[in-house]
Amino acid sequence: MKFIAEINIMPLKEILDPQGKAVLLGLKHLQLSEIKDVRVGKHITLSLEASSQQEAKEKVEKACSELLANPIMESYSYTLQEINEKIIRR
Amino acid sequence: MKFIAEINIMPLKEILDPQGKAVLLGLKHLQLSEIKDVRVGKHITLSLEASSQQEAKEKVEKACSELLANPIMESYSYTLQEINEKIIRR
């Protein structure tokens, strides 16, 4: 079975987000001052082979918790989609 | 009316993705070699005030096309959610 994972990794709410502040400044220069609370993180897509949905989930969890997300500063969420269209949300 | 936008900015498919390659290498060290086609982009969330859905969409389009995404190397997609739960996808 083949799966596609779409992963979002965001800075924890309480952590300062300098990238978000920089984007906010840029948006002001574009006269888009109605935009607030900008937060910038990573969006990662990947495909993987697994014998079951559960196994695919365990692999994505391992990838996120051991490599992709820094648990001290970031949180992660993902969707896992079997190629023949069954969407699984975490 | 208040809206929340979730924006994904990804490198164009034909563009080399060194970050994706680096992540792939890291995953191999975690014995996750079943994972392929890793692509790394940005996930940006923001809130904005607008008098209508259409106006909110125009502001997010302007933010994406003029600041957040580099049209030569990146593509963007977003969802726009009115705070009282109407989800609009692009």
From TrEMBL, chains A, B:
SUPFAM superfamilies: PurS-like. Keywords: ATP-binding, Cytoplasm, Ligase, Nucleotide-binding, Purine biosynthesis. It is found in: Cytoplasm. It catalyses: N(2)-formyl-N(1)-(5-phospho-beta-D-ribosyl)glycinamide + L-glutamine + ATP + H2O = 2-formamido-N(1)-(5-O-phospho-beta-D-ribosyl)acetamidine + L-glutamate + ADP + phosphate + H(+). GO terms for molecular function: ATP binding; phosphoribosylformylglycinamidine synthase activity. Belongs to the PurS family. Part of the phosphoribosylformylglycinamidine synthase complex involved in the purines biosynthetic pathway. Catalyzes the ATP-dependent conversion of formylglycinamide ribonucleotide (FGAR) and glutamine to yield formylglycinamidine ribonucleotide (FGAM) and glutamate. The FGAM synthase complex is composed of three subunits. PurQ produces an ammonia molecule by converting glutamine to glutamate. PurL transfers the ammonia molecule to FGAR to form FGAM in an ATP-dependent manner. This is Phosphoribosylformylglycinamidine synthase subunit PurS. The gene is purS.
